[in-house]
Specification:
Distance between the termini: 85 Å
Shape: elongated
Structural class: mainly beta
Number of domains: 2
Order of helices and strands: EEHEEEEEEEEEEEEH
Largest sheet: 6 strands, antiparallel
Helix content: 10-25%
Radius of gyration: 28 Å
Amino acid sequence: GETKSYSESQLTNELAVIDTTDPQFDEVVAIPTALLEKSAPIQHPRLPFRLQPKVSYPNAGLHMRSEAPNAPPSGADQGFGPRLIVQPLRITYKPDERNTPAALVELAGADGPLGTWLVSTLLEEPQTVTFQGRNWALVLRAKRYYRPFTLSLLKVTHDKYPGTEIPKNFSSRVRLRADDGRVDREVLIYMNNPLRYGGLTFYQYQMDAASHTSALQVVRNPSWRLPYVACVLMGAGLVIQFGIHLFGFVRKRRPTPA
């Protein structure tokens, strides 16, 4: 029954700095990882502190320091970092593998540094910091694209061929609700039957019936109108061609005056 109003990128990540002080809503400042790679100070008007990227890892693994006590320190002195070690990895370009970037980021206020945090896409739980009476959270995550509608997962179905583990069919029944209230309906998404809405196409991508989870692949096709335009043009061309031949045929059939 999870509901989401955003999709996530498989290639691009962002550092989310979240103001969690108000219990009613969160205010998020998303910083692209490309800025972390430049190592230049980052100052945003909505943040009371400055971010100074110190080290950026395009792909890195994390291990507990207790497993390798003699390993060099991670470089972080706040959050989860002091208990972890960073293992730089080669960037992967395989379609079935994902890079897990990490970075060391120092926060600094007007009176000096607040500490250094290790952020990584492997750390799903946000790291917290309190500054000037407000609570903040840091998390490196996949870049999010927020939509003016929500999708709620109602049911997942995973059918297999009898006596085998070969998938026969898997589908997701979702509820589509637009923010303006104009759309509120249930949709069944399965193989070769995607959901098309708002210029996006949602395909059934992955399925885990045991945990009742489903993953949808979101595709934006800016030229989705072209096939319809092509059909209209082809139809208009056929009508014009038929009209030309009909006009010529009628002219030939007219009796000539004596």
